[in-house]
Amino acid sequence: MDIVVASGLTKYYGGRVGVEDVSFTVRRGEVLGYLGPNGSGKTTTIRLMLGFIKPSRGGISVYGVNPFSGEFARVKRFIGYVPEEFSFPSRLRGRDIIGYFARMKGGAPRLKELLEFFPLDLDKPVGAYSRGMKQMLALILAFMNDPELIVLDEPTAGLDPLMRFRLLELLRREARSGKAVFLSSHVLDEVERVADRVCLIKDGRVVLQGDLRDIVGSPSKMVVATLKRTPSFEDFQLNGVSNLKISGSRVEMVVRGNYEEVLGKLLSYGILDLEVRSVTLEEVFLGFYQRGGGA
Amino acid sequence: MSLALLEYEFRLGRRSIIGWGIIVVLWVALTAWYWSILEESTLEELQRLLEKSPEWFVRFFAKGTPLALTYTVFYIFDYYVLVYVILLGAYAAYAGAGAVVDDVLGRTGGLTLATPIGRTRVMLARLATLTLIITMITLVSLTTSIALQLTLVGGGELGWLLKLHTIGIPYLVACTTLGLLVGSALPASIAKQVAAGLILAMYTIETATKGTGAEGLSLLTITHYYPALEIAVNNTTPVTSIVTLVAITAILIAISATIYNRKDLPV
Questions:
Q1: pLDDT in tens, B61-76
Q2: What is the CATH number of the domain that holds A20?
């Protein structure tokens, strides 16, 4: 079941593009990784999803409700959200903040479990918390009312490796239990570990989306070879070759089909070492963002 | 839910009660102490000075009302108009605008606005918090004013102080709702300053147009509906003004909520 449906979603800030013609869905029981570099439109998408801003064109619905309508307040009961940037009043204790937000959200049935996951000294004023502790508090606030849709904007920022691991584990568990998770991030290995589907956004437009397994397990292969002689760049500009990089006698490229011709070229230079493997999400990502094309 | 938000907002805003409490207590104390040490001859001299003051000066502080220099008038001049009506009025408008734009400026509103509380209720909870803060500052001002009049000035009629402060609350709440409107309608980067500036501008327009052909302009100002000096000196209860202030507040809330609900909040 589609919890979030965005269709042709467009937001302009004056003359600047926030997002343009973005379409995606977030389904129950999955983690959607929403990837893009800073300024690509990830946070704008989340603002539209939560009804903080209204679209210039197109639309988005959450549980079938337009987030910018008055009706959306009741839908927010089912949403847990961690913004990329937030601040807590430094004088209040963690316990106080949890207490207020529990009442605002209509309860905190998962608080005990979450405090085991993210141990925090709740009697300290938040001003004495580290960045990571504040992030844990924001995560507790997002999950404590057991939301059905979890929207996270760079949620691992400031977390130590153990807490990061625990969060990713929690996200997998949530998805397995039927929740929908929208994970906006630029930390690719994290997304690769938890996402079922990914959506890549560049300059406000979706450039690739699909199942993670299809993307990283695509027919494209990463070929890395060390050759006996220094190869020429032109020799490897072949059909099916992308992301070509040559450094001394080392050649690195993504190959899709046309293996025989590529192998022939490599053999013509003499092969000292050869590695052929599936492309990683990072390589797909860099293919789009650094060189303007897919891996 | 909204009550939790109100309590939360109040915890955040209560420092301003302490800040304003200190300003108010010190200023009232200074006013009462200075009056208590004035000698008869100095008073007469001050009265002469007042009568010779430029017209704009008398207009600005006394809105053109002919005055005999009593403690009431001195209190209004030295404390009430400057601190309560203008400074606190500007603060109320500034804080009202802040209730709308601080979410955006400080990127702090995401967590609150993602809770199942609609925008209108968020705005109303914040207005209620500011009203509570204003009421508490007013109570500090009233208590201090009465205590110091009794101890330093030597008793006298106190009803005017009670009336002045009680009617001050709807005036300050109206200033706050003006801030809400400015915060909802203008860009976040300038809204708070504009809101505060508007109160000073309104007071200036009101006093500058008094007795001129443009006096009708003052009807558009909030300050016009809080005739502090008239209340204090003549001990009147300006019922029409109070009703107008309440009506202005209701209208400004309705317009602000309509705009706020449609406004982009990039928190």
A1: 666 665 678 888 889 8
A2: 3.40.50.300
Residues A169 and A255 in one domain: no
Closest CA to B110 of A34, A76, A167: A76
Question: CA-to-CA distance for A148 and A157, rounded, in angstroms?
Answer: 23
A233 inside 8 A of chain B by CB: no
Same-domain status, A95 and A133: yes
Q: Which domain holds residue A6?
A: 2-214
Domain that holds residue B126: 2-262
The DSSP H or E segment spanning B60 is helix B55-62
Q: Is A26 in contact with A78 (CB distance < 8 Å)? A: no
State how many domains chain B has.
1
B265 interfacial to chain A (CB closer than 8 Å): yes
B113 touches A at CB < 8 Å: yes
Q: Whose CA is closest to A155, among A170, A179, A138, A172?
A: A138
Q: In terms of domains, do A106 and A248 share one?
A: no
B219-230 tens-digit pLDDT: 999 999 998 888
String of DSSP letters for B151-172: III-----HHHHHHHHHHHHHH
Q: Is residue A285 part of a domain?
A: no
Name which of A52, A53, A82 to mutate to probe chain B: the one with the most chain B Cβ atoms within 10 A of its Cβ. Answer: A52
What is the reported pTM? Answer: 0.85
Would you call A74 and B115 a contact, using CB atoms and an 8 Å cutoff?
no
Do A7 and A102 lie in a common domain?
yes
Tell me, yes or no, whether B267 lies in a domain. Answer: no
Q: Which of A83, A87, A103 sits opposite B1 (nearest CB)?
A: A103
- A208 plus A227 within the same structural domain: no
Q: Is the dihedral of CA A137, A139, A145, A146 positive or negative?
A: negative
Q: What is the pLDDT of residue A242?
A: 83
Residue A176 inside a domain? The answer is yes
Set of chain B residues whose Cβ sits within 8 Å of the Cβ of A89: 11-12
A283 within some domain: no
Tokens of B122: 């968020």
A220-224, B54-58, B98-102, B155-159: the lowest-pLDDT one:
B54-58
